[in-house]
Write a structure and sequence with these properties.
Length: 214
């Protein structure tokens, strides 16, 4: 065997060995990359979905106009906006409605309000108040729904309505948006603020303080 042939054979063997070694390294590196990608994907799958707001605004003011005339104004210390179109007012919401002369006809306030876009519905909680300036009637309750499309309020919770010196109580209520027409679904009674506790009428309900335990 000539010297050149021996050199060629040796070179081929070295090349094959080097290729096998390099291929093994690429295989190990490939497996490591696949394992790393799988672990990262698993971490992403296992990670909790973010359900918080996409954006937040402080001192949010929203105006609604009709034919260039402002008919409603919403004020809130903070407003959260979600990806699905929902909105939240975690620090309370105050709304005023106006007539064509710019006068406030009624107002609404609550400690917490959430708007669900898919239902086009507002849910108010905590110290909810509606007042009609036209009739001077005022509603108080702990939960209220506002259907803006139908222009109505409703609830199935306990309500008190102060109207012309009388307080009406009951469970459940429906009203129009300016609170000039309403009805209590399950009335529990009425009392006059100026009634003499010693001479109640048959339809009056007098609120008495709860006795203290000794």
């Amino acid at each position: 065997m000539s010297e050149d042939l021996r050199i060629n054979i040796t070179t081929k063997k070295n090349t094959i060995a080097a290729w096998k070694s390099l291929s093994g390294r690429f295989l190990v590196l490939g497996l490591w990359l696949i394992l790393l990608a799988c672990n990262q994907r698993k971490d992403l799958v296992d990670a909790p979905l973010y359900e918080g707001p996409l954006s937040s605004m402080d001192s949010a003011i929203t105006l609604l106009s009709d034919s260039g005339i402002v008919v409603m104004q919403m004020n809130a210390n903070r407003q959260n906006n979600f990806e699905n179109g929902d909105r939240e007012w975690p620090e309370g919401l105050y709304i005023e409605w106006y007539n064509r002369r710019g006068q406030v006809t009624s107002y609404f306030r609550a400690n917490y309000v959430y708007f669900t876009k898919s239902e086009n519905l507002y849910r108010a909680e905590g110290n909810v108040v509606i007042k009609s300036n036209a009739k001077n009637d005022e509603l108080n309750t702990e939960e209220l729904f506002w259907d803006q499309a139908e222009e109505k309020f409703y609830t199935d919770k306990f309500v008190t309505i102060n109207s012309d010196g009388e307080v009406h109580t009951g469970e459940g209520m429906e009203s129009n948006q300016d609170f000039t027409e309403y009805r209590i679904l399950k009335p529990s009674g009425t009392f006059r603020l100026e009634d003499d506790p010693g001479n109640p009428s048959e339809t009056d309900i007098l609120i008495k303080p709860t006795p203290q335990r000794q």
